[in-house]
Amino acid sequence: MQEEYPSWAVLSHGSDSSFELEDPGTLPSLEFLRLQWDLSCNDVSDAVQILENAGDLQSVKTPWSHINAIARSSICVTPIGAVTISISSFESWRQAWLEGHDNHFYNFNTTGENPCGCQPSDAPVNPTLTITAPTGEFVSIGQYVEDVFQWLYSTRQEIRKAIGQFDDPLEPAWELIVLPMINRISVYTQRPGADLWALEHDVQQRVKVARRMQRDQEVEAQASLTEHSDGSLLRPYPTMLELEKEAKSARKWEIVEPSLELSRLHWSLISSDVHDAIFVVDDPADTSRTGPGVPFSYNQPVAAASICTSPISAVSIYIDVLESWHDCWDTLHYEDDPAPDTSVAVQLPKRRCFACGIDAPPKGPGPKLFIQAPSRYQFITVGQYVQEVFPWLRSLGSLIRRAITSGSSYCDKDESLSYKYDLTPLILCSHIQIYHNQPGLGLQLLEGMERRRAAELARRQEGSRLQAAMDETTLSA
Fold this sequence. Notes:
It contains 16 helices and 16 strands.
């Protein structure tokens, strides 16, 4: 009897392909991550290159060939029998068009008039491609490449129109950078105003996942590395998403809290040297008694500790002020360029406030950093967290300072936060809050945060002491 493989929709429970899904079986295969795409070529053998090592973008590349062994591999860690693929550019263009004409639909529904003449059915189409494997087989990389390349190449001009949205199509001078996943294809460009942070995050995330998958294969190939001394198997550590799901079902949010060891670190972004910017205190709940602490070092015991109360192997990190920047900016400038409700013109996405002469920040989520332990059988340590997060925060310093001012009603919207005021990150594992010591509300928020943080840490320390005492009593009995 031939084996029947699940469709992508069944395997993923309707989710889009992502490196952060809970089930490792939904990840793109290591072989799939070796592919690099270029839509400027009209021949698939030139357009798709195969990296020798998916974890090294500088490794040797060979042209695509359907007789290459990789062509027979599955596109997904868990083989699938069918998948329906969409392109992100078409989705965002359709959404922007509907939002731009929403005022016209409202006028028609309330007054019966719409001089624009538009209808929801006029919205740009969002085409999809369905790939179905032959009966009893799974969707192979060969089938995926051949079908997807022809589809992408035939729609490349429509993709350029979608990227241009209400403006002219993307100019030919700017190449389309294609990064496919299982059921969703992201298309980027490096033209001015493009979301380069998202492109960099996507590229680096693929490399990190590939390296981790390689390390997992090495660990699993050596039984001695996957067993404890008592013979029990070493189990993979969960990701932050898995822990959060577990905490939600059990209503025990303390398992996803930052560890007390991570909380001993006091961060600053004033210096590029981690030893001058991060200090370790003995008691994070009593800053007045511990003083500034000692400079952080990667060979300190705290560096080997877990970042979370329950160790995790992967986490996606975001910064509060950058995550909410566009929405805050849009709210502040909403009335600056008012458009009458009866306007026939399309209500374009606000890219610039003409009343203030200020450009809008990028729309959508802010930059993210994806961190994962070298293997699923290891957890993220404080040392690894500092090594990856600190330079990332430093690189975003000017953007953070701009977001603090242009996204806040109580700051001067014309200038970035002055560099004479320090940025103080509050680290909450996957969530980083940014405070600053500018006199006024900024300093008040910083001082209030420090008091609340100290009180919360003191509560957790007392809980840990009580639990230790109970455990000791139980053992004695």
